[in-house]
Known about the structure:
mainly alpha
Amino acid sequence: MYCEEAxxxxxxxxxxxxxxxxxxxxxGHLESCPQCSEELQRHQRxxxxxxxxxxxxxxxxFAHMVREQAVRRLEERVLVPAEWRASRRLLRxxxxxxxxxxxxxxxxxxxxxxHVQADQITAAALDAGNGSLADLVNAPSSVPIPDxxxxxxxxxx
Length: 157
């Protein structure tokens, strides 16, 4: 038995929940492992401290109030048909798909807008300069480009 497993079982050992072979294996490990034996002693001291604490007091109607709340919550769960719970799961899936579609569509639309803006600026520059596309490419400094186009195209990249 490894220490990790032994230490996980210490509370069950102290509570008398381990029986037979499991209890014997843990006892054998505790006899051969000083670290786990020390951990058992810490658990035993903690248990004694907890047992020495005074019992908590609750109001007279506390148990009745807890029972009523439990019954009410149980009734609320029964009133929700299983089909509704399944449809809520389906609604969550549909919402996630809509979100993904929105993100993809937004990315597509933003790149489409950038292309349309570039086409409009090219057309406006050609109209303003009464030249050809070759003239526009060869003389970029003579064509005014709006500042907002530069921002949107750099953001798209």
